[in-house]
Amino acid sequence: MTARTSSVLLFVCLYNKKRESNIQLTPSFFFSWKQMESVSFPLLSRVAICGGTHGNEMTGVYMMRHLQKEKIDKIGSVSVSTVLSNPRAVEVCRRYVETDLNRCFTEALLNSPVTDSTPYELRRAQELNAQIGPKGSKEAVDLLIDIHNTTSNMGLCLIFYSIDWFTLHILKYLQSKMTSVEVRAIQLDIPISEAYSLESVGKHGFAIEVGPQPNGVVRADIYNMVKEAVDHVFSWLQEFNSGSTFEEGEVEAYTLVKSIDYPRNPVTGEITAAIHSQLQDNDFKLLQRGDPIFLSFSGETVKNRAAAIICRGKDMRAR
Ligand SMILES: [Zn+2]
């Protein structure tokens, strides 16, 4: 097992309930924040949907192929760009070919000079930035949705950077419409210039991460869950662009506290344990101090030594 394939981590999220009250999004593209303090927003008329940013996460790959075959370029009032982000990685059904495309969208990397030694994915990131960005500019698409899969049992999760009223309202809308699935959110607290993933190229953006789905496999239930979510996002956009009023509300978001690496052989670095069966598939459930986390291959249980936390058992290569 190489160093890269052994980079399997336990992702730990502190349950951090962020209460966003008194938020209203009004037909004139305002939202109200306490005492009717308001900010104006323009229409969301240009949207990019991306899949295959990781070439072995098949929901987005098949969705892009389908949308491109159907030549979908407009849904209601919204013009739509469908993007197969990493075609070379898709071709070989691997996460990436030379470097992780979804770590290439920092401002520094997007503006770095291209040389003979520039990895394919960094070139591709700069191409995508020219096509649906540039990041941070007024030419960038209004909303960028990037579809990912994970091997972990996390249901449907929006991942986004800074607090963004559009994303919060879309999250609330999805939660109200998709009652048979848990719709959650993770906020990555990283400045947008340092934000490394594709959704940071849009004026607004989020990743939809859905699992469990093995890499290289397409499951109908997962595909349909994402299709339903995307359909709802476009319904919300139609409502917003046509002037509906959105009620104030609350949403919850998780934030990352830390990652816990697998137990390893100190000499070889090889992983010496698997996720414990009591934790496996129990993403987003409260893990108490003393609860099992890992089971070593010699049968020893490794317990949680921290205070109660919410865990997400995750293969780091799955996002
Ligand atoms: Zn991914």
From TrEMBL:
EC main group: hydrolase
Source domain of life: Eukaryota
Localization in the cell: Apical cell membrane; Cytoplasm
Membrane topology type: Peripheral membrane protein
Pfam families: AstE_AspA_cat, AstE_AspA_hybrid
Domain AstE/AspA barrel-sandwich hybrid: 250-301
Residues engaged in binding Zn(2+): 54, 57, 148
SUPFAM superfamilies: Zn-dependent exopeptidases
Any one Gene Ontology molecular-function term assigned to this protein's record: metal ion binding
Keywords for the protein's UniProt record, in alphabetical order: Cell membrane, Cytoplasm, Hydrolase, Membrane, Metal-binding, Zinc
Catalytic residues (UniProt): 209 (proton donor/acceptor)
Catalytic activity: an N-acetyl-L-cysteine-S-conjugate + H2O = an S-substituted L-cysteine + acetate; an N-acyl-aromatic L-alpha-amino acid + H2O = an aromatic L-alpha-amino acid + a carboxylate
Classification via CDD domains: M14_ASPA
Main location: membrane
Cofactor: Zn(2+)
Family statement drawn from the similarity comment of this UniProt entry: Belongs to the AspA/AstE family. Aspartoacylase subfamily.
Name the record gives this protein: N-acyl-aromatic-L-amino acid amidohydrolase
Organism: Oreochromis niloticus
